[in-house]
Amino acid sequence: MDFSKFSDDNFDVKDWVNSALRIRDDRTPVDAHASNLVMKLQLFIQEVNNALEETSTQSVNNIPRVLREIENIRHDASLLKEQMTLVKEDIRAVEETTAQSMKMLMELDTVKSRMQDASRALQEADNWTVLSSDVDKVFESGDIKAIAAKLEGMHRSLTVLQDVPDYVQRRRLLEGLKNRLEALLSPKIVAAFNNHLLDDTKEYVKIFTNIERLDQLQSYYVRCHKTKLQKTWNEARSEDPNKSMLEWLSTFYDVILSTWHTEVTWCGQVFNEPGSVLCTLITQTLTHLDPSLSSCITEFIKSQPNVIEKLIELRRVTLRFAHGLEKAISQQQDKCSTLSLELLVDAVFSPYVSYMLDYPTLQQTLLTEQLHATRLHGGGFMETAGLMAESVEKIFRLSEQAVDYCINLTDGYAACGLCHVLEEFFGAYAGRMDECVTILRKECSLDADFNMHTIPSEGISEDWTMFQNAFRLIQMCGDLLLKMENLDQSLLAAIFMSEEDPRSQTPQKIQEKPPSQVRPFHWFNYLQKERPAELSALNELKQKLQSAGESAVVLPGVADQLQALNERVHTLAFDIVFIQIRQQLSQTPKLQVWSAKSPESGAALSDELPTFSLSPLGYITHIGDYLLTLPQQLEPYITQENPGLEAAMKAGNLPFPDLQDQDEHHPGSYWLGSIARGTMQAYTESILRIHVLTPYSTQQLLADIDYFCNVLEALEVTPSQTLTHINALLQATPEKFHEVATDLSVEDRIMMAIAGIRSIR
Question: How far apart are CA 144 and CA 138, in angstroms?
């Protein structure tokens, strides 16, 4: 039986009992086995009790002896404390008596150290003399190791002799000897690098490190492989004349990446910072290409119709190469210095810097050419309206394309310049659209003086073609406003896309991060180095837009110009609708009916002749029919879902607004109310221009006004106060005329005009 489990911390009685009962002979009954277990446990308990009793007895017997030993220890500790106090006093006394002696010993030690330094310097001076005396013989022997050892010794000696008067001459002599060694080793070094001779290269690295010329050795490595890559550059350019620059530049970049992956393992066995060496190799290669990459780019884009697009295609090839380099460099972690990395980034992207800086000018030239090629004015109203409406899609496609160009070529850093370009572009576009509106007004004779012409008697034309095209222009303005909002959001994204750019931080913050945590090729902040003032302007624009929040507008001037164009187009559409009413009302004061005494006889009619016996004249019925037809013409535009038209109507204003009710109206009611109020004003002015009214013609005019008021009621428009006053003054008898005018507080101008027309004094 295993009794050791009883001492476990996690002892479980049930588990132990079950386990003990399972361990039995099949021929032994469970009861008998359990009895045996109980007996064994009892015997074990008895043994434990005996052991506890014996241990307890021994412990009780040992207590007096332990107490005596504790007392002895306490006594010894007291004696030790007293002795330590005496020793401390002795040490203090020794310090007081020997302080001067210790000071003298320290001075003597200083003198000794200086004498040893002087002795060492004399030995090194003597060593320099010995080493320099037979250095020529060593060079003549050609033993590289002996020469290297000799130069290493001279280098150590010269380090000690920095304060001797002829230090400069000695240093010049040593540098000359180092140059002789380098010239002697040059062919072997080149062969070792070209053939990847690892052992020989390691030996050269050791020699050049000891004489502090490891940079020169790395320069040999760079020159060897740079020559190969420059040869590849020339072969890639001239291999196939049919290949475009996009193809052979990509091939050349692939060779550079292949060189990196081939050389990085070998360099890791030779140099401490293989990443820095390879970065220097690629940097030197890219900056010393013949012909240069910049000149090749200039030649490539010279005959291209869209220079920016070709530059972006070239830059994409370079970006793919840069991202491949970035991934390769990240695997080197801390084996690549920040300086070599920054120089490499500049070398990769520098051919594009001049074009990035010139991007706003390139973009402005492209947009100006496209705008000049856009035809806006046609042979008639319909064609011009169609061309103007079709131009919206093209103009904003060009604008969105410009934003994409800005992002893809400059990573958004030229956003400020792009904003200025777009402001000028939309200013020119809005100017041309405004000219088209002016031309359309002239074609429609909207600004003519109809009082000087005779209007045909057939009434108002039912041709609504110009009205429909005018509403097409209103929808065009709505599309302009909506697309301008989308363009503004695109510009915001372009402006803020460089927010996470680590290169926008200070150089000190960049250097604090290891290369593995910085994506050097992901952003190239060319403004930081070339034009810091423009970078400051970009940052100021960002802060301004951020402070504006959701109400931020990137191009507020353009938004105002488009809003002004929307107002002009609304006025154009209104005048097109209103022109026939103006034509009719301009001739109303000249009608012969106002001076007629009776349509049948020359006898004067009674003033009490009821107005319902008279029918409204043709001029006012034509106007009434025209106004009542308007809802049918407006219905297609206001019942169908049309975001552009809704946006334009919401932002636009019409003449003759309802000053008493400034709440937002339904577009149809808003238009009908504006035209009706305009008609009322024109009608009242035409009444006031009548020269004379007979009693009969006064009744006729009252019938015309009553008809017009019924039309207004059908359109749910309230007659104006001026029209109401004129109606009341026309109905008043000559005796009560002035009394009615006073009661209604009629304007003096209205009262005097009606009194003159009716010959009332």
Answer: 9
Q: What is the C-alpha to C-alpha distance for residues 22 and 274, in angstroms, rounded to an integer? A: 70
Cα–Cα distance measured from residue 3 to residue 44, given in angstroms and rounded to the nearest whole number = 9
CA distance 656 to 659: 8
Q: At 337, is the secondary structure helix, strand, or coil? A: coil
Structure tokens at 225: 């492989």
Whether the pLDDT of residue 645 is over 90: the answer is no
Tell which residue, 712, 698, 700, 675, has the closest CA to residue 758: 698
Q: Determine the Cα–Cα distance for residues 447 and 466; give it in Å rounded to an integer.
A: 16
* H helix intervals, 134-213: 135-141, 144-160, 167-195, 198-210
Angle subtended at Cα 399 by Cα 642 and Cα 433, rounded to the nearest 5 degrees: 65
Dist. CA 95–CA 89, nearest whole Å: 10
Q: Is the pLDDT of residue 286 over 80?
A: yes
Question: How many Å separate Cα 736 from the centre of its chain?
Answer: 77
Contact 325, 524 (CB under 8 A): no
Q: What pLDDT does 94 receive?
A: 77
**Two tokens, residue 691:** 């020269």
Q: What amino acid is encoded at 677 in this protein?
A: R
Residues with Cβ within 8 Å of residue 208, at least 6 apart in sequence: 214, 216, 217
pLDDT recorded at residue 506? 38
CA distance 704 to 616: 5
User: pLDDT (tens digit, 9 = 90+) per residue, 169-187?
Assistant: 667 766 666 677 667 777 8
Residues 253-267, mean pLDDT to the nearest whole number: 90
pLDDT at site 313: 94
